[in-house]
Amino acid sequence: MNIHILMLILVLVAFVLTIWAQFRVKGSFKKWAKVEASAGMTGQEVARRILDRNGLRDVPVEPVRGMLTDHYDPISRTVRLSEPVYNSNSISAVSVAAHECGHAIQHKEAYGALVLRHRMFPVANIASGVAPWLLLAGLFLQMTGLFLIGIVLYAAAVAFQVVTLPVEFNASSRAKNIMIKEGFIRNIEERGVNKVLGAAALTYVASTLYAVLELIRFILLFLSSDE
């Protein structure tokens, strides 16, 4: 089979996996959003408790509109939780809230992968916006130099995604350990936590795999253009 056809098939498979992962994380969240955590605490209360006990009393917890829009803002040092998480005492809510607090703790401890990710962000942000246009222009105008620049910038964006993986996995690991230690969940509730956090992690893995395969495909296209 032609290497380019094989790569195209792999990219399509990765793309389908990415879409499936997004549906799975939404499905897992909705399923466990219907199950109340035994501690009876809302996402906001869990986040506040975790932050306070880790010396982060100055980090606010704020509600943000939308679903699965939860994030930690390292610039303002703020944990923002979507309304379904902020106000709910479900397994999904406490899992997501604890995960975002995991990022705040990483920030405080200067976790290596997170520090690297923050340093890469400005370049990756610009690269992800410019690279697709340069790749398209280089391909259609048959300008290999322009196409190569696009590949380099796209590689920077992919590197950012790769570095994001350990950051997310570490935050989830911290979240689970903290929830068990603090008694936010019982042993029988760990399955729900694993499902929610595992589905979220899968979306990062799938999107990164897709990006890496795309990068390889672009490199092969560039190499073949010189033949």
Automatic annotation (TrEMBL):
Pfam families associated with the record: Zn_peptidase_2 (PF04298)
TM ranges: 6-23, 123-141, 147-169, 196-223
InterPro entries listed in its UniProt record: Zn_peptidase_2
Name of the protein in question: Zinc metallopeptidase
Keywords: Membrane, Transmembrane, Transmembrane helix
Recorded superkingdom: Bacteria
Keyword Transmembrane helix annotated: yes
